[in-house]
Specification:
Layout: H1 8-17, H2 19-37, H3 45-50, H4 57-72, H5 75-84, H6 90-114, H7 119-151, H8 157-185, H9 190-210, H10 227-240, H11 242-257, H12 264-271, H13 276-280, H14 282-304, H15 307-326, H16 333-356, H17 364-393, H18 395-416
Helix pairs in contact: 2-8, 2-9, 4-7, 4-17, 5-7, 5-17, 6-7, 6-9, 7-17, 8-9, 8-14, 8-16, 11-17, 11-18, 14-16, 15-16, 15-18, 17-18
């Protein structure tokens, strides 16, 4: 462990020495994870699965609500503990296995046991497992982001996320091709069982790679405070950092603009009476869009900052909903989902990375937690409002409203938020003085 007398240079040397190893194992972790997630896409595959049990748009909208609420809201509650932890790896690796990954494995027996004979139990078990997974991911994601920020230097994070996501989405194209092929040739629920099983294997493999990360242990110099004191200190951050406050406002507006995301595939399937195999084929377009975008967005972010990618994502969000509204046939949904893939790439590369640049390492978990939890409130409510709007006024009005709000998010981001890299470039590790060589963690 690095103690309070360890020189900064020793920590930096350790990180540089293990940079290639950490880049490789974490890129493989991300590649396997996103490859596996292509089999359980919450935008396409999971809504299709639920559509076999219900046509209620509010219930289908629960997927997006759970994805936001249970994933985003817990983050600020664990940021205090993560900020003081000398090793961040414990959270995504040790806790993450049980909290985030085990429920994905259990989707397979859930579908096998209940999908055919007990639709009500199938719905209940699915929502229970998906809540468990999303909540677990919310508890560990801040630790993972803080670990990545610690072991991947700031000027190489865009490249890291770009290559990682390219590998995951590139291989995910194979999964996206396989899913409609399997769904077309198997009776329900066998195709979904096979998709869930493939996701389980790949997501477990990603955990194996993640566990190989090498992270130096660096004790925090921040004093220990109670959770109540910690929450009382949060308003002072946004009062002091007005640019970060404006960024949070953008994320809230952007989250509301995403409220129709989970309804696109259901709308297309219902409007043109598409079978699961044809609707599932939209995953291919989304994976290709995300994979190709990653090749360009990562280097762009490293050179010009992450704000430009977020602006592109907000613009394409508005454009894609406009295309949904005017689409004369289902073929238009292939470019729609291509754009949705690009939007996701913008979020995965720059939505994650830009927050790391607003603060110093000591405050980074708090900034990450605030940037995720606060818009998480909007993200949790928006899909439910979207489902109610779709039920009352129709899907077209939902898409029009979402596209309009996305355009407003773009205008606000462009005119009100300054790229934090132009204001503040955080040091990779807090300074200290002493031991020459940190041990492997």
């Amino acid at each position: 462990m690095i103690n309070n007398t360890t020189p900064l240079s020793a920590v930096q040397q350790y990180i540089e020495k293990n940079y290639k190893h950490n880049f490789i194992v974490n890129a493989l972790d991300g590649a396997c994870f996103w490859f596996g997630y292509s089999f359980i896409s919450p935008v396409i595959i999971l809504p299709l699965y639920l559509s076999h049990f219900t046509d209620n748009p509010i219930l289908i909208g629960l997927i997006a609500t759970i994805n936001s609420t249970f994933f985003l809201l817990p983050q600020l509650f664990v940021a205090n503990a993560i900020g003081r932890a000398p090793v961040k790896k414990f959270f995504p690796v040790t806790l993450g296995f049980f909290l985030e990954r085990v429920p994905i494995f259990l989707l397979v027996p859930s579908a096998l046991l209940f999908a055919t004979n007990n639709p009500t139990m199938a719905l209940i078990s699915f929502f229970f497992l998906y809540m468990w997974h999303a909540l677990g991911a919310g508890f560990v994601i801040v630790g993972w982001q803080d670990m990545i920020a610690k072991i991947i230097p700031v000027d190489r994070r865009g490249r890291f996320f770009g290559i990682t996501n390219f590998l995951g989405n590139g291989s995910g194209i194979l999964g996206a091709i396989a899913v409609p092929f399997v769904l077309d040739r198997t009776e329900f629920p066998n195709g979904f069982v096979m998709a869930f099983a493939a996701a389980s294997v790949l997501i477990f493999l990603s955990w194996v790679f993640l566990a190989q990360s090498r992270e130096p242990a660096v004790p925090s110099s921040k004093p220990r405070v109670s959770q109540l004191e910690y929450f009382r200190s949060l308003p002072s951050i946004v009062r002091r950092d007005r640019n970060f406050l404006r960024y949070i406002i953008f994320t809230v507006i952007n989250a509301v603009g995403m409220m129709a995301n989970g309804f696109i595939v259901v709308y297309a399937a219902q409007r043109w009476n598409l079978p699961d195999s044809e609707a599932g084929a939209f995953v291919v377009a989304m994976q290709i869009g995300q994979a190709l975008s990653n090749l360009f967005l990562g280097p762009i972010a490293d050179k010009f900052g992450h704000k430009i990618n977020l602006e592109v994502g907000a613009l394409l969000n508005a454009v894609s909903f406009g295309l949904v509204v005017i689409a004369p046939d289902p073929l238009w949904f292939f470019p729609v989902f291509f754009l949705r893939g690009t939007i996701l790439a913008c979020s995965m590369i720059s939505g994650i990375s830009i927050v790391m640049e607003f603060s110093d390492p000591e405050d980074r978990p708090t900034y990450i937690g605030m940037a995720n939890t606060i818009p998480g409130i909007a993200s949790s409510i928006a899909p439910m409002i979207g489902g109610a709007l779709a039920g009352a006024a129709g899907y077209n009005w939902l898409f029009i409203l979402s596209g309009t709000i996305a355009a407003l998010a773009l205008v606000f981001l462009r005119t009100s938020v300054v790229d934090p890299r132009k204001i503040h470039r955080p040091e990779p590790i807090p300074a200290a003085a002493g031991d020459p060589a940190p041990p492997l963690q």
